[in-house]
From TrEMBL, chain B:
Gene3D superfamilies: Aldehyde Dehydrogenase, Chain A, domain 1. Pfam families: Aldedh. The keyword Oxidoreductase applies. SUPFAM superfamilies: ALDH-like. Keywords: Oxidoreductase. This is Aldehyde dehydrogenase. GO terms for molecular function: oxidoreductase activity. Residues 31-262 form the Aldehyde dehydrogenase domain. InterPro entries: Ald_DH/histidinol_DH, Ald_DH_N, Aldehyde_DH_dom. It comes from the Bacteria.
Length: 351, 301
């Protein structure tokens, strides 16, 4: 019928969702007609116009909410103990984007955070460093100095974080500042208002513009603020939209709204990056952020990654935790494994 | 048939599920285990939860969380709440008399005397909450233009191994002084007779004591106490219910983060207790406060 790549994607979905899809997905995939025309990836033509993009995004199969939540919950029941737990904790520490995004951030606090990212547990130098510190653009230079020479990256939120309500020029200036100050990664927020209004092309163009401004200097994480997207269908569409626009990472949330990363919405995004790579050969990272506070939760997310996207994503180049208090719990669990005694908050830094 | 049942007054027995009291809630043991509790003549009374080290860990988290609010409450307020506990106990006296009689093999009148003494002990300690600072704190004369004030402050999270024999009066005598001064407590109930302790949890839950201030665990004392004695977030441990061998082991583990330790000692819980147990888990904070410039007359007034 249609092209092989097209069938690859749809038969995957068809197999998994066919009995469960409640909304008929009558729209034919635009890729069917245009596959092979683009040099970057097979879905290049999807974004040729507003209508092709809309047809593609609305042609994605509906999400079975009950099934998704049940799957996420069942993967959360795995028992990870002893050496596997030690491995998971070290991996999780190496994936943490240690974050401070407060109005009250001072250079001193950012320096302290940088020191903590480089040596999470000063009493045990075998502890891995965190992946990055994540700060506001005006703190990038300070953060860069604090982590210099350690391999810890500096991520900066940008584009009028967290609301994203500003003109494109302002957003791009924000990104330019961050990149110029030396940010290795930029966390942008999408325009949720435009997305919810169905103005997908506007969202797409913004991401492309930000990606262009980042250039090759900084990797781009795109924050969808899943707590504001209302439905799982929207999260799936946003994920594909972000990936089509060239995101290096797709990220759940800002941490500034009531509902942040949940196992279910992270699972959904992991399915999206897996399918995107199967379709286009391009690998995209995932970053759940906000609300992950305990080692137990973090390990559940790692199980989701391994079982959904696969072991290729079990690396801090492809998976991150946006968190601050999580690190302390991971360190306390690490100390417990090393000494056999339960540790307490007196033995980690309070930030 | 049903008529006959009604006439003879027979009812199906309604057994009570005894549960732990942790963080103001009544969970079962995380491990799902229970053990059989018998009276002094080995007759089965009930199943009690057999706590694991993870229950102990959860209890520490709950106690630590409650510490800020409880230690920050005014002493007067703590006194009112402890008195409220006594009021609630008074209302459920019959239940406690029955449980204590079963647990310790006492006659009803002797058990009632124990429960009365326990209630009176709550009242006694409730009175102490806002007086202990006057007894062990105060202004110190110093050679300089300073006010020098010592005030007692609670130690933090305290683990108490309840006395094994005196299942209720002994229990109250070790818990009440700890929380009266603003500490929060994790108590390992008497291994053989935990039921009065587990029922006390129900009383505490209904007497304005914030959740997490008192946490009651039942099970093997050694199994619960070992991880707690080594726990880095526990500040003190009262070994009242430990035997000699266990006490030594726990004391060694407790030394790691310099916990305050009360060694097991022979105590007659019917006696007036004195204030040793109140002061055992207090720390003294001393502040130097400048009096201000002294004028030529030697006084700033």
């Amino acid at each position: 019928m249609s092209g092989g790549i097209h069938r690859g994607l749809y038969s995957r979905y068809a197999r998994r969702y066919a009995p469960l899809v409640t909304m008929p997905t009558t729209a034919t995939s635009p890729t069917a007609k245009h596959v092979g025309g683009t040099p970057t990836h097979a879905l290049g033509d999807v974004t040729a116009s507003d209508s092709t993009l809309r047809r593609f995004l609305h042609g994605l199969p509906g999400v079975d909410a009950v099934g998704l939540e049940a799957r996420a919950a069942s993967l959360g029941t795995r028992s990870i103990k002893t050496t596997a737990k030690a491995y998971a904790i070290d991996l999780a520490i190496s994936m943490v984007d240690l974050t401070t995004l407060e109005g009250a951030d001072t250079p001193g606090k950012v320096r302290a955070l940088g020191a903590k990212a480089v040596h999470p547990d000063p009493t045990d130098r075998t502890t891995p460093t965190t992946a990055a510190v994540c700060v506001y653009p005006d703190m990038v230079a300070t953060a860069k100095e604090a982590v210099a020479g350690s391999g810890v990256k500096v991520a900066s939120v940008a584009t009028a974080f967290p609301a994203g309500r500003a003109a494109l020029d302002v957003k791009l200036a924000d990104v330019r500042d961050a990149v110029a100050a030396g940010a290795d990664e930029v966390d942008m927020v999408i325009d949720r208002g435009a997305f919810l209004a169905g103005n997908y092309m506007k969202v797409y163009d913004e991401i492309v513009a930000v990606k262009g401004t980042c250039g090759t200097k900084a990797r781009l994480k795109v924050i969808f603020e899943t707590g504001e997207l209302s439905t799982y269908d929207n999260i799936r569409r946003a994920s594909w939209l972000g990936m089509l626009a060239g995101a290096d990472f797709i990220k759940t949330s800002t941490g500034k709204v009531a509902v942040n990363a949940t196992p279910a919405n992270t699972l959904l995004m992991l399915e999206a990056v897996r399918d995107f790579r199967a379709q286009t050969g391009v690998q995209v990272g995932v970053k759940p952020a906000g609300g992950i506070r305990t080692s137990k939760d973090a390990i559940k997310f790692l199980v989701l990654v391994n079982e959904t996207a696969g072991a290729d994503w079990l690396d801090n180049h492809w998976f991150r935790f946006g968190a601050s208090s999580l690190l302390n719990d991971l360190l306390m669990q690490r100390q417990k494994l090393a000494t056999g005694r339960y540790s307490g908050p007196d033995y980690v830094t309070v930030d | 048939m049903s008529e006959k049942t009604e006439k003879t007054g027979q009812r199906l027995p309604v057994f009570k599920t005894y549960k732990l009291y942790v963080g103001g809630k009544f969970p079962r043991s995380e491990s799902g285990r229970v053990y059989e509790v018998t009276d002094s003549k080995d007759k089965w009374l009930a199943n009690a939860p057999l706590s694991s080290r993870k229950d102990a860990r959860d209890a520490v988290v709950a106690a630590r969380k409650a510490f800020g609010g409880w230690s920050g409450a005014t002493a007067y307020n703590r006194g009112q709440i402890l008195y409220r506990v006594a009021e609630m106990l008074e209302g459920r006296k019959d239940q406690f008399v029955r449980e204590v009689a079963d647990a310790e093999g006492l006659s009803k009148s002797k058990a009632a005397a124990q429960v009365d003494a326990a209630i009176d002990r709550w009242v006694w300690y409730a009175g102490w909450t806002d007086k202990i600072a006057q007894v062990v704190g105060g202004g110190n004369p110093v050679a300089g233009p300073f006010f020098n004030l010592s005030t007692p402050e609670p130690t933090g999270v305290v683990v108490v191994l309840a006395p094994q024999k005196s299942s209720f009066l002994g229990l109250v005598s070790v818990i009440a002084p700890v929380i009266a001064t603003g500490n929060t407590v994790i108590v390992a109930a008497s291994e053989k007779s935990p039921l009065p302790a587990l029922s006390l949890g129900e009383v505490l839950a209904t007497s304005d004591v914030p959740g997490g201030v008192v946490n009651v665990l039942s099970g093997r004392t050694a199994e619960i106490a070992t991880p707690l004695a080594a726990h880095q977030d526990v500040n003190a441990i009262d070994l009242a219910g430990a035997d000699e061998v266990l006490a030594k082991e726990l004391e060694i583990a407790a030394a790691d983060n310099l916990k305050r330790v009360i060694r097991p000692q022979a105590v007659d819980y019917t006696e007036t207790p004195g204030i040793e147990r109140l002061t055992a888990f207090l720390e003294t904070k001393t502040v130097w406060h400048p009096t201000g410039a002294l004028g030529a007359s030697g006084s700033s007034y």
